[in-house]
Structure formats: C-alpha cells, structure tokens
Specification:
- The structure holds two protein chains of two kinds.
- Chain A has one domain: Rossmann fold (3-Layer(aba) Sandwich), CATH 3.40.50.300.
- Helices cover about 35% and strands about 25% of the residues of chain A.
- Chain A has a six-stranded mixed β-sheet, sandwiched between helices. Chain A has a four-stranded antiparallel β-sheet with strand order 2-1-4-5, covered by helices on one side.
- Chain A is globular and about 45 Å long.
- Chain B is an all-alpha fold.
- The longest helix of chain B has about 30 residues.
- The N and C termini of chain B lie far apart (about 45 Å).
- Classes of the chains: A alpha/beta, B mainly alpha.
- The structure holds adenosine-5'-triphosphate and magnesium ion (MG).
- Magnesium ion (MG) binds next to helix 1 of chain A.
Amino acid sequence: MPDALTLSDLHVYHGDICAVRGLDMSCAEGAVTALLGRNGAGKTTTLSAIAGLLGTRQGHVELFGKALGGRKPEAICKLGVGLVPQGRRIFPSLTVQEHLAIAFRRPRHAAERVYDVAAMETLFPRLKERRRQLAGSMSGGEQQMLAIARALVTNPRVLLLDEPAEGLAQQIVAEVAEAISELKRAGLSILLVEHNLPLALRLADTCVILSSGEVVWRGAPHILANDSDLMAQHLGVH
Amino acid sequence: MTFWVSQSLNSLALGGLLFMLASGFSLIFGLMRVANLAHGALFMLGAYLGLAAVKAGLGFWAAALTSALLVGLLGGVMERTLLRRLAGRTLPQVLLTLGIAFIIADACLMLWGGDPMRLPAPPELSGAVRIGDAVFPRYRVFVIVASAAIALALWLLMERTRAGAMIRAAVDDVGMAQAIGISSSTLFTAVFCLGTALAGLGGVIGGPILSVYPSLDQDMLPLALLVVILGGAGSLAGAFVGAYAIGFIYTFGQVLVPDLAYVILFLPMVAVLSVAPQGLFGRRLG
Ligand SMILES: Nc1ncnc2c1ncn2[C@@H]1O[C@H](COP(=O)(O)OP(=O)(O)OP(=O)(O)O)[C@@H](O)[C@H]1O
Ligand SMILES: [Mg+2]
C-alpha cells in the first residue's frame, strides 16, 4: 500500500528546545498508525508540525507524495490533513452547527465517501441533540466528539488524532473508540496518539514509540503487547 | 425632567458614536491581538474626508459612504503592507499603529489646517423634534437610531452568518481556525477593513455633533479604549454595553461635575476590572 503520510528527518523546535529530533516514520494508507511515548516525548509536537502549527527547521513531511513543508495550516488542511488536537480546542463561542459549517469542505477528488453534517450526526448522535448548543457549555466527551467531527468534515485524507480518550469517562471512551474503528473500516488513514494503551493497541495496525523526540521502537501492536520490558521502559507501563 | 431626558438622549448619541469607533477596535484586537492606536486618527480622517467630500459637492450620504470606503481601504492597506510584517510581535505592532496615528493626524493638519470646522448635517435632518418637554436636534435622533441599526447589522453579521462564525472561531483560537482551513490572512484583512471603515463612518456621522478639529482623535481614542477595557476585548456585546455606559457616564459627568469628569469616567472601569479583569463580556484571550 502507498504511504499516506511520510515524515523524514523531521526536526521541530520550541524556541531553542529541540522537541523532535530527526523523526522518520510513515503512515500507510487506510491504516491506523499509533504514535506512543511518555509525557513530553514529542508526540503533540509532531502532530502540530504536520498540521503546520509549528514550523520545522529541518526535514520533510509529505502527504501522498506532496511536500507540506513551509505551508500555512489552512493550506495543509485543504491538501487533506485533519487535526483533532490535544485538549480538543473547540471554539467555546460557537454552536455545534457552526463548528461543522465553517469547517466543511468538499473532498478534492471525487470520493466515494463525503463527511458532511448528516454523516457526523450519524456517527455521533449526541451532536445532533446538541446542534444549537454553544460548544463551551458541553461536556468533555461531547467536545471531543465535536473536535473529531470538525476535523472530519474538512474531508481529510489523513486524520491526526491527539489523545482522543484523554480525560473522558469509560463509557464515552467506548463511544469514541467505536467511532474511530468505524472510520478505520471506511478506509481513512489515521495517525493516533493515545496514552490509553489497550485502546491504542486495539485500534492500531502498527506502532511507533517516541522517546525524547526520537523513535526508539516500531512494530506490530501484538508484539508490543507481549513485550513488558519495552512497555515498562518507554511507556511507563508495569 | 427636561434636563434628564435631553442629557440621556445626548448620552445615547455619544454612546452610538463610541460603539462605531470601539466595535471595530475591539474586533481587531480580539482577532489579531493588535491594539490599533490609529483607530482614533482614522475616525478623525473619516470626518475630514467627509467634510472634504461635502465641500466638493457630494451630498452628506454619498460623502459618508465615500469616506467610510476610503478609510476602510486605507485600513486594509495598513494591515496588508505594514502590520502583517510584524505578525505576533505585539510591542512593535502597537508602536507602528501609534506612528501611523501621528502621520494621519499631521497629514490632516497639513491638508485642512488647525481651525475647527463644522460638518453640516444633511438638510432633511436639520431642525428639532419635541420629545416630551424636551426639544432635541433631529440629527441627534438620527445618530441614535443609525448607530443602533449598525449595531444590529454587526450583530447579525457576527452571529448569523458563516463569515461571522469564522471570525468568532478565530477570536477563540486562531491556530485551530487555520487548522480547519480558515484563511487567517483573508480574515485579518477583511476585519481590518470593516473595523476601520466603521471608524471612518463614525467620524462622518459624528462630524455634525462633535465638529471636526485637529485633536478629535485624541479626544476619541481614550474613550474607545475605555469602552473596550470595560466591555472586554473581542466581544461585540461588550463594545455595545461599554459604549453606552461610557456615553452616559461621560455626558452626565461633564454636565454634573465637570471638574471630576475624568475621575468619574475611570472609576467604574477600576471597579469593573477589580472584579472582572477581562471586562464585563471578555473572555481570557490566549
Ligand atoms: N509551547 C511549548 N514551549 C516550550 N516547550 C514545549 C512547548 N510544548 C511542548 N514543549 C516541550 O516539548 C517536549 C515535547 O512536548 P509534547 O507536548 O510534544 O509531548 P507529548 O509527547 O505530546 O506529551 P504528552 O503525552 O504529555 O501530551 C516537552 O519536553 C515539552 O516540555
Ligand atoms: Mg501531547
């Protein structure tokens, strides 16, 4: 399968601090790639750089072979990168409906699936009930669903999910996980960052572990699941 | 009784003018985090341009429209060619807008001289109306109604259109707005044009009441800043409430206790800020 997203020798800085050092990785089309690692490993920094929210000083990002480097976030979004950021970053003063209206963009290529408002309300029936509610007054779970829906209606070719289960009640995590599985079944390419390891392992086709901005391991989820030393060393799981 | 009615109407008229000035200032600040200190100068430039257009033979309404468009255009050029180069650098940006304010003020002085001039109200709005026992200039009633109509139109734009939702989204979180495909560059220019055009329009509409003179900008800018600090930056509702509050406080302060007018103006601001540092309607802007 061709690669949906390729990062090569990526370096990303916060001021003078180098948070991602020479990252090489790729996400296969139609697969879920899990990016794992302890707090501060550089996962969010990587996703922000792909989306164009942070500048990169060295290295390349390619989306289906097209270079994204140096472009503005809005241009990267239009080329097909959808970001569900850590902490959700919904717009508190907009309603659910308005979030989807301003984000919606028809797919560039004639695609068999179009994520529009109706599709999002099927995927997350709760959003339908909350249509006219201000997003700032919704629960964390609903905000997370909205953040995912907002990224999906841009009709991305690759979806970046940064800790979609963070801070959510068990039952909501299950709902969000089910939605992600459904997107995967529909063939969407996904780059997933998630601290909930069982969830990440269940969804992922392949895993990459970061530590201090560098890749320390990559492989299949079932191999990682059976390697308790690896999990203890790089993910803090005992 | 008559005194209270007519001073209240004066307050509403001043409040309306302040809203035209402060709403644009507030939107620009909320969106771009730039305190546009040239806003008062653009208001004054609007008044002078309106006056020049009237002298050149244009009717009042055509003059108001022309002036608003020209000032809006100038605002857009300012944003595209100068402010944009300093994106994200607050202090240089503020200093730049201050410099532009001085240049505009000096240019006005050079072109139109130092004497105050009266911008005549359109003939159909001359004369007075009786409101209860009070006799009140018809033009001021128009200012009250027109500014309220502009406030309503702005509210509809911001709350009921897709473009308005995009602006609010970018005020909330500009990076995230970009990440869902909203072009911040287009939005910044559009809001700068709109906000400065409103200031220019306010200058023309205010001309017949305030008259047109070289330090008009210095009289208006502090009031607009007060409105925004009181109401909260980036919030249209805040600009609305703040503008009318300042309109009342300033008008009544000046007639009742002229010596303390400025103290009375700043006291409520200090009071509000000590309880609500973001202003009445403000959110914490990151
Ligand atoms: N805005 C910032 N300014 C300075 N340093 C930052 C900033 N954001 C992150 N960092 C630093 O960059 C490194 C990587 O942070 P990043 O947020 O990418 O980690 P992460 O893997 O997403 O962690 P977490 O699992 O806690 O979300 C950390 O050392 C962090 O302290
Ligand atoms: Mg993170």
